[in-house]
Amino acid sequence: MTSFISDQDFTTPAHIRVTLDDVKHEDRGREPRRGQPGSAAPFHSMVLLAAVWLVVSAVPIGYLGAGRYDVFWSDAVVGITIAIITTIRLLHPLAPFAWVIGGLAGWLLAAPLVLQYGWSAATANDLIVGVLILACTLLGAAD
């Protein structure tokens, strides 16, 4: 009987294991999943970092100090949702969640008008992060 632990190679360093995996995939005539030119992983990583910033930004921008709980919750829920979906897309590159992330980025662009932020740091933050996420999602979906 085998288990996940017994099937793993713990004696070979990780950077050598990855190289061996790539060589094995090339020997079979398939493209290796890691290290492909034109991979969308850097775009997904940028989206993940932007989502984390969206959740954390409530502290330096001061949403709660200004009494803007609606802005805080909007950014927190959108940021956590984007982070979860992007993590799934990083683990499974063919996962078709680009439309969901694009829709959430669209919400970030529309939220200052819908929730009536006024022109503030929260508005600038949502617009910049929304454009960044939308651009990275479109570029990542193009690959």
Q: What profile does the largest beta sheet have?
A: none
By helix and strand content, what is the structural category? mainly alpha
Distance between the termini: 41 Å
**Amount of beta strand:** under 5%
In total, the number of strands is: 0
Helix content bin: 55-70%
Number of individual domains:
2
Low-confidence stretches: none
Number of helices: 6
Q: What is the H-and-E element order?
A: HHHHHH
Shape: elongated
Summed over residues and divided by their number, the pLDDT gives a mean of 79
Radius of gyration: 20 Å
Q: What does this protein look like?
A:
Residues 46-137 form the SPW repeat-containing integral membrane domain. InterPro entries: SPW. It comes from Dactylosporangium sucinum. This protein is mainly α and 143 residues long. It has two domains: 1-36, no CATH class; 41-142. It has six helices and no strands. The mean pLDDT is 79.
Chain-wise SSE layout:
Layout: H1 14-27, H2 41-56, H3 58-61, H4 69-91, H5 98-114, H6 121-142
Transmembrane segments: 43-64, 97-115, 122-142
Keywords: Membrane, Transmembrane, Transmembrane helix
Domain SPW repeat-containing integral membrane: 46-137
Can you give me a brief rundown of this structure?
The protein has 143 residues and is mainly α. The protein folds into two domains: 1-36, no CATH class; 41-142. The protein has helices spanning 14-27, 41-56, 58-61, 69-91, 98-114, 121-142.
Which keywords apply here?
143 residues; 2 domains
